[in-house]
Amino acid sequence: MGKKDNVTDEVFGKMCALFDKLTEEQYRSTMERVSVKHYKKGETIYSCGEMPQYMYCLLEGKVKIYKNGVGNRCQIVRVVKPVEYFGYRAYFANGKYVTAAETLEPSHLAMIPLTTIKSLIQSNADLGWFFIQQLCEELGRSDQRTVNLTQKHIRGRLAETLLSLKERYGLEADGYTLSIYLSREDLANLSNMTTSNAIRTLSLFATDGIIAVDGRKIKIISEEKLMHISRLG
Fold this sequence. Notes:
Layout lengths: L2 E3 L3 H6 L1 H4 L4 H8 L3 E5 L4 E3 L7 E7 L2 E6 L5 E7 L4 E2 L2 H4 L7 E4 L3 E7 H10 L1 H27 L2 H16 L14 H8 L3 H13 L3 E4 L2 E4 L2 H10 L1
Antiparallel strand pairs: 1-2, 2-9, 3-8, 4-7, 4-9, 5-6, 5-8, 10-11
Helix pairs in contact: 5-6, 7-8, 7-10, 8-9
C-alpha cells in the first residue's frame, strides 16, 4: 500500500477546484482529514468489489481505471490525469467498486474520507453542484468512448486512443512525444484490442510516417493523419 505523507498547503493548492467551494470553517475541518500517499508504479489503489472509503485526487503521476471482463481480459476504462478526482462514484451509488485503480508510474494521491465529502455536500450546495458537473462530464466522455470502441475498426480505435492521450497528458518539450509512456498491453487494453493488434497497428502507423516509436515513447508526426483515421473509424 502507498506510503503516507503529511498534508501541505501546496497539496491544497493543487486541489483548489474542490476547496474553492468550501467555507473557511469547512476548509479547516476538511484539512485535518486529508492524507497524502505515495504509490510506486503498478501499485493497486483500490480493487473491484471493495467498499469505497476515500475519494482520491491525483496530485502527480498517472493512474488507470480498469476492469477485468470475460476470460479475465483487462479493459482500461479511462486514464486519470493530475488534478482529477476519482473513486467516489460507487459511494454515491451505495455500492462497491465495479472497477479497479492502479498507478501507471510513481504517483502522489490525496485521500479524503467519503463520509467527510457526504457531510460537506449536505451543507454546501456549491460542492454538490461541483460533483454533478464532474459526473456529467465523465458520463459524456464515457458515452463517446463506448461509441468509439464499438463502432470503429482497429486503426480508428488506436488513432483515437493516441489523440486522447495527447489531449489528456499533452506533449513533451519537443512538441511531438506523448507525455505518457504506456506498454503495448496497456495501449491495447485502452483501445479494446489484442496486444498483437496494437503492436501491428503501431508499426503500420510508423511505416506510414504518422508516428515514430522508440520503446514506450510515441511521437505524433502527423496529427492530421491520425485525426483522419479516427474520423473514418
